[in-house]
Amino acid sequence: MAIIEEEEEERLLDHLPKTYTKGGLKTMPFIIVNETLEKVASYGLQPNMVIYLMKVYNLEIVTATSLLSMWSALSHGLALLGAFVSDSFLGRFTVVAIGSISSLFGMTILWLTTMVPQLRPSRCDHFEINECDRPTPAQLLVLLFSFGTIALGAGFVRPCSIAFGADQLDNKENPNNKRIMESYFNWYYATIGMSTLVATTLIVYIQDAFGWRIGFGIPAILMFFSVSAFLLGSSMYIKVSASESLFTGFFQVLVASVRKRNIDLHSVNCEDYYHQSSDSEIQALTSSFRCLNKACMIEDPERDINPDGFASNPWRLCSVEQVVSLKSLLRVVPMWSSNIMVQLSLNQFSFATLQTKTMDRHIFSDIEIPAGSFSVFMVITLVMWIAFYDRVLVPIKARYTRQPGGLSPVLRMGIGLVLSAAAMVLSAITEGIRRGIAIDQKDPQDGPNINMSAMWFVPQYVLLGLADAFNAIGLVEFLYSELPKSMSSFVVAIFTLGMSVSGFFGSVLVNVVDIFTSYGGGVSWLSSNINNGHLDYYYWLLAFLNVVNFLYFLLIICRYNRHEKEVKEKQCEYSTQRA
């Protein structure tokens, strides 16, 4: 089998030009090892981090959860910065290298906090956190600096690594290029799934069994190997130079529109007034966001257009393609925003870790699942459902309906929203039962496990996995279908931005809930002693917000369908005029 695979690889590489000495399949081990180890290292730190912040840094649950939500928001938000810097200034290789080194530096500092006593508060044996020493500003600064550098690394590596790998294989002269690229993307995402499973099981188990020093040391060591592997392949990489970014084009449209804000569009009735880029297909402008049409309006042909057909000043005259791209982005924003609540529901791991930590987590008498590893059920559900949907349901549907493809992206997004709300309802009910049993047994949270199996939490993780499979993948397909082909690489950045917004909103939400529910000296719903608080009420609040979000989604669909009808009518009218 190995000999056959080697012969196949040689046959594919034979189609490359003889001068094509860099890139190719030989670079894949370095790139995939870099991304895989980065995922294992960073994802392995997250599940138990709330326990580390509460037990070692003596932080309240609200403070710890808010901090972790902001960390998640920063990690995903910086992906936009990474993509922009890569496309416009430094190129993908340099950005991935900087990001990998930054992650290694941050994980090393975080590791040092487990070994250097001066970098953390003194050990506290009191059950009530408010009786313990708080971290000093200097200690918090070191902790936040480590989080920030890890977030910067993730933001630079994740959006650029997959595109950098594609650069090594994308060779239009190779007749097998399409199959090679499809194989690359499949294996790339397969390694991400495996990395997540390893991180949420093996790394979390090591932290529980061997302590924080070893548990945080292993991710730092893995990140060292990740950096080393990537840099070792440096001489073999194809390093594509930076070019103009889509972000720049968007800013140019906005600036040009503002500069021409006094132009009367009603006096323009001919598409010849608009600047069509010579290297793009002719496109029609719609009436939506009509003010942006001014950006591509030609005022003085001799002044605005160069002899080669390009704009003399791209900050004053843009192409129709640039305007259409920005309009397409603005049009999908409402649908994109409906995904934020789903991401917020998926990010409740900090509370779930504390809940399952008080319960019986044994599968068999000798096998106990770490509290931070229960999210693995969500990952397994996600992978299994995708395989079942793609290999079983889609072919069955095609056979009986005579139509290729599965459910529409919008329908899948709606199903995901319903499942997200159902998961939060189930979480609220389960927590209410858990809390009642804990109070009846007078469990002090840090004492013996209550007489309730943590397996009762598995159904809600299954629902969340299905919600993610339906909504997230449906959203990505929707974005790919609605945005121009020139913006295909922008889809991941848009989706990642939603995860960033959900992290920021989650941080604000827990703080608002804590302030309002503890007003007047009452016990907060989000008390650090979860048996005194009311996490079940918090989950009911999330369920309510998910229902509101679903109604918002239905309104978006109605408005979007009306807009689609207007666009098709405009395109038909435009095609008739051009003919």
From TrEMBL:
InterPro entries named in the record: MFS_trans_sf, POT_fam
Gene Ontology cellular component terms for the protein in this record: membrane
Membrane topology per record: Multi-pass membrane protein
Transmembrane feature ranges: 61-84, 90-113, 140-166, 186-206, 218-238, 369-389, 410-429, 492-517, 537-558
Primary location group: membrane
Subcellular location(s) of the protein: Membrane
PANTHER family: OLIGOPEPTIDE TRANSPORTER-RELATED
Protein name (Swiss-Prot/TrEMBL): LATD/NIP
Origin species: Solanum stoloniferum
